[in-house]
Every structure is written in structure tokens, then in C-alpha cells.
Amino acid sequence: MLGNFSYCNPTKLYFGKGSVMNLNEELPKYGKNVVLIYGGGSIKRNGIYDEVVHILNENGKTVTEISGVMPNPTLEKLYEGVKTARSAKADLLLAVGGGSVIDYAKAVSVSVNCTEDPWEKYFISNEEPSCETLPVGAVLTMVGTGSEMNAGSVITNTRQKLKIGHVFKDEKIMPRFSILDPTYTFTLPRYQMVAGIFDIFCHISEQYFSGDDDNTSDYIAEGLMLSLIRSSLIADKDMTDYEARSNIMWTATWALNTLIACGKTTDWEVHMLGQAVGAYTNATHGMTLSAVSMAYYKHILPYGLAKFKRFAVNVWGIDPDGKSDEEIANAGLSAMEDWMKKLGLAMNITELGVDPSMLEGLADATLIMEGGYKTLTRPEVIEIFKNSL
Question: What is the dotted CATH code of the domain comprising 190-388?
């Protein structure tokens, strides 16, 4: 392990079937005014909305709603939510949905009492809140982002074609509690399920492909990847397999609650490339990541050969006998690519709506990260996007 670190994660999790009833334990801790935040209405069709509202009413809460939170929450929607939460004098923001809804709730949390423009303060200048923030609770219905147990938030500025994330430093921005019932994910369309699965995998690999030391965090990451690969193939055949879906949900939470980043540098360039694609196309987040991953990892493999070799052997079971290090590492990426294709993930950005005329703009929208095995230049970014077409 390299370097010193501190670790604190105060989010209380309630996991398993029927765990929504634990709202009865949490809600009395907060004031009367609850802002219920959700997406496009699927929670009304599958009954989750009625369950949650019934419990809120039983606890005597005054409920104001923010509905229609989109998969890539926009700055305009953030401004709307801030206005609603202020008007409601919110005591608690309760996000019911996937990562985008929870991300959005955190953005509202830090913006309600902010006298500055939240886009400029939090997402351009990357500043921390200097105002009082609102507590956030979550009922998770779609897995992938890990937003249920971290302090991250991603907002899209459609006018500027920028999609930017901010991981806030203060743990009070994390959800105070999160409800994780795997059965709530059963009605999710397959496309969204597999996109979420790759988002999980990418969160792990972004933290794994860095550093040269013998790091406990990397061993944990390998175990999470092995569990996810196995469970993903089971869930792909039977989307209501509780064991598989519960393992996927639990892996998603631990993939990005900062545990496996302890004692490490981290990469995150795949996310920067994918978020640029998302800003231009509004494509599903996990699919933007899968569409650029192969080109990126093939590009940086020579700079992190030892880790890619380890990845091939420990995660994908590649037999190293009689192979060079390069052959082993490339065999691992080929096995990863085969798994991605089996799940039906997007394997290029063309199918997401990108054409060659967008490449310069995509490069402009891509943030360059320095934690991985290779800090990209602008020409390399363009080359990776070309290879992803």
C-alpha cells in the first residue's frame, strides 16, 4: 500500500427484500417536509412509488415531488429542483431511482442554500459547499453508479455540451441512508441492466488499472470483478434470479464507495471519454463507457503491462504458459471483449450516434486525468475516439 489515507463512509444501508420498511426507522430523524425525487414514472408502474408514499404519509410527512429526472440530469433540471426544494422548505431529499436520480438529489442538496451559480461553483471550479446542505436518503431501483453510498454527482450542461462530475469531499453529502432491495431491479429493461453492469465493471477497472505496488485494494477489486462477471451471465439468462441480482447490487455499491481507491492512484479516463460521448449524444452512461473502453485499454496496455497481465490471469483465467507478457495481457482484453459482446453492450460510438465530424468537439469535452498509466495528449484522445467509431 502506498501513501497515507483516511476512510469514512457514514451511509447506513438496508439490504434485502422488503427493506423499504426501514424507512419507518429513518424518517422520524428528519423534519416534516420531504421532497420526493424520481425519474420518468416507472416507479409508479411497478408499485414502488405507492409503497414509498404510503410510508411517508404514515410518518406524517408533507411531500413535495420533483419528477422527470432524466438519465443524464441537466443543469436546467437542477435549477428547477433547487427552486422546488426552496419553496417546499425541504428537510430531507428522498431520491427513489437509479444513480442519475441520486446524483441529482446530491446536486440539489448542495445548491439549495448556495448563493452562487452551482454549475460554476461545483462543476466548473470544483469548489466545495460553503453553505448548509440538505440531507439525502435513497431508495435504489437501478444499480450501476454506486451513488447510493458515495458523494459523487454528475450534471450535464446541454448548451455547453459538457457532462461533469464532482465527488464532494465532505461525507455529509453522501446519502444518510440507502434502501437496497434487489427485487426492485427486476422490472428494469435488459438494456438498462447490462449498461449498469458495465458501469459497475468500469468503476472497478478505473481504480484497478493504476499503481505498481502490491495493494490490498487490487485484490478486493479482482474479487468484485469475478463476482460481477459470474452474476452478470446468470442474470442475462434470468433477470429475476435473486442471488445474481443481489450480488450485482452489492458489488455496485462496493465498487464505488471509495474503499478500493484506498492507498492508490486512480485512472477515470474511460469515464471522461464516455461522458464526452454522453454530452453529445445523451446515450446511456454505461453504453458510452463500453463503446470507448476497448480502444482506451488497448492504447494504455503497453504502459501498464504488468497489471494487464495480472488482470488476464487473475480475472479472466488466462493460462500464461508459453505466452509472452504481451500475449497474456492481450488475451485478457480479448476475454473481456467477448464477455461484453455476450451481454450485448455497445462496442463502438457510431451506434450511439457519433460521427467523424464530432471528434474535435468530443476531444474538447474530454477532461484529461493523470492517475492512470498514461496521461493522454489531445491527439491521443482523438485517436482513441477514431478507434472507437
Answer: 1.20.1090.10
* Per-domain boundaries in the chain: 12-185, 190-388
Taking a C-beta distance cutoff of 8 angstroms, is the pair 136, 176 a contact? yes
Burial class (CB in 10 A: 0-12, 13-18, 19+), 3: exposed
Note whether 59 and 31 are within 8 A (CB).
no
DSSP 8-class letter at 350: G
* Each residue's pLDDT tens digit, 247-277: 999 999 999 999 999 999 999 999 999 999 9
Q: In sequence order, what are the residues at sequence separation of 6 or more whose Cβ sits closer than 8 angstroms to the Cβ of residue 373?
A: 209, 210, 267, 300, 303, 304, 307
Q: Do the beta carbons of residue 256 and residue 208 sit within 8 Å?
A: no
Domain 12-185 indexed as CATH 3.40.50.1970: yes
Give residue 170's identity as a one-letter amino acid code: D
Whether 8 has a pLDDT exceeding 80, the answer reads yes
Q: How many CA atoms lie within 13 A of 172 on its CB side?
A: 11
Cell numbers placing 365:
469535452
C-alpha cell at 271: 469515464
DSSP-derived secondary structure for 107-123? HHHHHTT-SS-HIIIII
